[in-house]
Amino acid sequence: MDSELSRVVDAIPGLVWTAPPDGHIDFLNHRWCEYTNLGLGESYGRGWQRVVHPEDLSGLLERWRSILASGRAGEMEARLRRFDGEYRWFLFRASPMADASGHVVKWCGTSTDIEDRKRVEEALSAPWWLQPSAREQHFRSVADNIEALGALVTPAGQVELVNRQALEYFGVTLEELRGRAIADIVHPDDVPPVRAAWRQAVEAGRPYDVEERLRRADGVYRWFHTHGFPLRDTQGHILLWYLIKRDVDDLKRGETLLAGEKRLLEMVAGCHSMSEILEAICRLVESTASGCYCSVVLIDPSGMRVEHGAAPSLPASYMSACIGRPVNIDAGPCGMAAYLNEQVIAADLTTDIRWAEWRPMALAHGLQSCWSTPITSAAGKVLGSFALYSNQPRAPTALHKSLIEQFTHIARIAIERRLSEETLSKVRSELAHVARVQSLGVLTASIAHEVNQPLAGIITNASTCLRMLAADPPNIDGARETARRTIRDGNRASEVIARLRALFSKKDATAESVNLNGATQEVIALSLSELQRARVSVRTQLADDLPPVKGDRVQLQQVILNLILNGSDAMRRVNDRSRKLLIRTERDGRDHVRLTVQDTGIGFDLQKQDKLFEPFFSTKSGGMGIGLSVSRSIIASHGGRIWATQNDGPGATFGFSIPCRWECSRGSDALEPIQTPAVTIGMHVMTSV
Ligand code: ADP
Question: Is 293 helix (H, G, I), strand (E, B) or coil?
Answer without folding.
Answer: strand
